[in-house]
Amino acid sequence: MTAPPEHAPRRVPSGEACAVAHPNIALVKYWGKRSGPGNLPAVGSISMTLDGMTTRTRVRFLGAAGDDRVCLDGADADAKTARRVRALLDRLRSLAPEAGAAEVESSNDFPTGAGLASSASGFAALLVAAESALGLHLTDDDRSRLAREASGSAPRSLHGGFVEMACGRSDDGRDAVARPLLAADDWPLKVVVAVIREEEKEIGSGEGMQRSLATSPYAGSWIASHPADLEDAREAIRTRDFARLAAVAEASCLKMHALAMSARPGILYWRGATVEALHAIVALRQEGLDVFFTVDAGPQVKAVCTEASLPRVRARLSDLPGVRRLIVCPLGRGARLLRPGEDAAGSPESRRREGA
Ligand code: PMV
């Protein structure tokens, strides 16, 4: 039997599907786009996919023309989010023109838009659900490219464990795709997320990175020093060298925030409690624990640690006055379809949460 052409619907679509995906956190940060369409990254990035926070998205195509309905956490999505969702659906609908308008219902069991990578898990889950609802069979790289057009960090949430997103060189972004580096079970680190503020951040990552690259005097050094950081992190992951990963991840995080802070006007994602948490993590490491920090475009602090260090990391962070609660995450799986009756969280371990 000859294979159907790429992108063609290969089976009768059900018209409806549900998928789950998890946020990822970058160890070597993506911050800045190169010119061209579809969120082409100016730098590559390396991340870990988490398993303690979940986006669940159901997509239903109605087979008739009309407006898409996008519901996020129980309410109509804001206009900007709805536009981004529609843009991704339109790309898929161009491969399945009979699909018609869609109903999308998505929910996060963690704060949305607060520097916890809800756009990465959201668009990864949307893509996987919509692809299945339309009966499409995309390649991994096609899925990566479509997810990237929606959100620069979303391709990384398509895969589990440690993932590298290439910045690529081509103008059409064909080589700007995410690939898995190491499975979660091969180095089962833990991440303790210290939630400091649940409110949505004031400056989104898209605007923040654009302003940083356009105005920071350090933009050139950020780009020039990036390949060495990627190489260092790749090697640390390959050899499971915690101290080496800690050094490069903290350096990349501080560089990214230095870039944002040195933009005009400057962008400061941190709060007082963010700085206190960073000091607490460094102190724990000086006491001999395997732990390091990273912070994305928001105030929350993520402590990456080994299983053995987890109890003391948890105890120290939960004692900090500005920390509202902790979310403890093992490393997790990539975006996947949810069959009827299946639990969104998957493994029982994936929902270990606690109040701070
Ligand atoms: O994918 P975006 O546009 O939300 O950007 C992500 C930016 C950071 O989270 C700060 C860094 C990263 O690599 O995830």
Report on the architecture of this protein:
The protein has helices at residues 79-93, 118-133, 140-150, 154-157, 205-215, 219-238, 242-261, 272-286, 310-318, and strands at 16-21, 24-28, 45-49, 55-61, 69-72, 75-76, 102-108, 162-165, 178-182, 190-195, 291-294, 301-305, 325-330, 336-337, 353-355. A six-stranded mixed sheet has the order 6-5-7-4-1-14, with helices on one face. Residues 1-5 and 346-356 have low confidence and may be disordered. Helix 2 (118-133) packs across helix 3, helix 6 (219-238) runs antiparallel to helix 7 (242-261) and helix 8 runs antiparallel to helix 9. It has one domain (16-338): Ribosomal Protein S5, domain 2, CATH 3.30.230. By secondary structure, the chain is of the alpha+beta class. The chain binds (3R)-3-hydroxy-3-methyl-5-(phosphonooxy)pentanoic acid.
Q: Which architecture per CATH?
A: 2-Layer Sandwich
CATH topology heading: Ribosomal Protein S5, domain 2
Global morphology: globular
Rg over C-alpha atoms, rounded to the nearest angstrom: 20 Å
Measured distance between first and last alpha carbons: 58 Å
Which ligands does the model contain, each kind named once?
Answer: (3R)-3-hydroxy-3-methyl-5-(phosphonooxy)pentanoic acid
Summed over residues and divided by their number, the pLDDT gives a mean of 91
How would a textbook summarize the main sheet? 6 strands, mixed
How many DSSP E strands? Answer: 15
Our count of domains comes out at: 1
The residue fraction in helices comes out at 25-40%
What is the CATH domain class?
A: Alpha Beta
The SSE order reads: EEEEEEHEHHHEEEHHHHEEHEEE
Structural class, from helix and strand content? alpha+beta
- What count of helical segments does DSSP give? 9
User: What ranges have pLDDT less than 50 throughout 5 or more consecutive residues?
Assistant: 1-5, 346-356
| Residue fraction in strands | 15-25%
Strand order of the largest sheet: 6-5-7-4-1-14
